[in-house]
Amino acid sequence: MVAGATGGLGQAIAVKLAELGCSMMLVHHDNTERSEKLRAKLKERSADAWFYSCDFSSGDDINDAIEIFFDQAKSPYALINLIGDPARVDWQKAQINHMQESFLKNASAPLHSAKAFAIKLQEKKIAGAIVLFSSMQGIYPFEGSLYYGTPKAALVHGAKILAKDFGGGPFIRINVIAPGVNQAGMAEESIQKGKYQKLVDQKIIPRYGDAENIGKLVAFLLDPDLYMTGQTLLFDGGLTLRRDLLR
Fold it and tell me: CA distances (Å), 65 to each of 51, 55, 118, 234, 236, in order?
């Protein structure tokens, strides 16, 4: 089950999973153009996938989608949830409702989906995997990122708690990916505006990230033999590590 499947990172992940022969339920809540683009990519690969439209920041919609998935999936196994919001607001002028809205989409809803999915796996005595998405801004305190980085940091901590709660038998692994600047997804618009160009120019990072590599990382976290849970993989090319060298 891939939530946020028609976004830039979501499409790369769906294509990678299709290449691995996975059957998928692709959850989306966006324009038809992106959905049709993904349909075409998957058709080329003869993928076993079906689309489901809903608001994955709504508790009722999340619960309904998970019920449908477990009713229809041949072998229910994994949830990949990419749903989030960039929370592009002026942090000095933003109000409490902006933080609440960001928390809903960047922490509360993803964590609820992980809990609900894990409960279903546990009820059916199925070992499985859940992958959530934070951000480098949820790991490192970037200035001006109060309304985005804070909920993403909360997601990381919440995922650890869930990994602890569901880590026995059956083994349900819950891990997090924290991307840096990738040429897809939320960062793509910022790249196009030149926000991160100086990082490449000054060789803080060798290049921008690649959505295809995120797909490979998701595939790694879905490996049934993976002996890892409650971890966050920072995937930023060393950006947060070397940011102090920026002139």
Answer: 11, 10, 14, 29, 31
Residue 234's beta-bridge partner residues? 178
What the block records as the tokens of 14 is 């769906």
Q: Does 242 reside within a domain?
A: no
**pLDDT for 145-200, tens place per residue?**
999 999 999 999 999 999 999 998 899 999 999 999 988 766 777 888 888 899 99
What is residue 131's predicted lDDT score, i.e. its pLDDT? 98
**Order of strands across the sheet with 2-3?**
49-53, 24-28, 2-3, 78-81, 128-133, 172-179, 232-235
Which CATH number is 177's domain given? 3.40.50.720
Q: What is the pLDDT of residue 73?
A: 94
The verdict on pTM exceeding 0.90 is yes
- Domain assignment present for residue 197? The answer is no
